[in-house]
Design a protein that fits this description.
Structural class: mainly alpha
Helix content: 55-70%
Oligomer: single chain
Radius of gyration: 17 Å
Number of strands: 0
Length: about 80
């Protein structure tokens, strides 16, 4: 018999809220972000770090969403 896997509702909400807050912060402070991220020098690492952070948070949200709605990879 297959054990029923618990769905990650809490993680879905957590990563969804964090993702939403990050996008709100980005768009409400876009002047500061543009000014800071285009300074050059070691500031050039900021957009790269931001892209990795947004990618990780959004990917975790999407993964949990797919698990909650029941889309899981097939087991061989």
């Amino acid at each position: 018999m297959k054990a029923k896997k618990k769905k990650p509702y809490l993680m879905l909400v957590v990563f969804g809220v964090v993702s939403l807050l990050m996008y709100v912060a980005l768009f409400t402070h876009q002047d500061w972000v543009t000014e800071t991220f285009t300074k050059g020098g070691y500031y050039a690492a900021y957009p790269i770090g931001a892209a990795f952070l947004f990618s990780f948070i959004h990917g975790a949200f999407a993964s949990n969403l797919l698990s909650v709605i029941g889309l899981e990879p097939k087991k061989k």
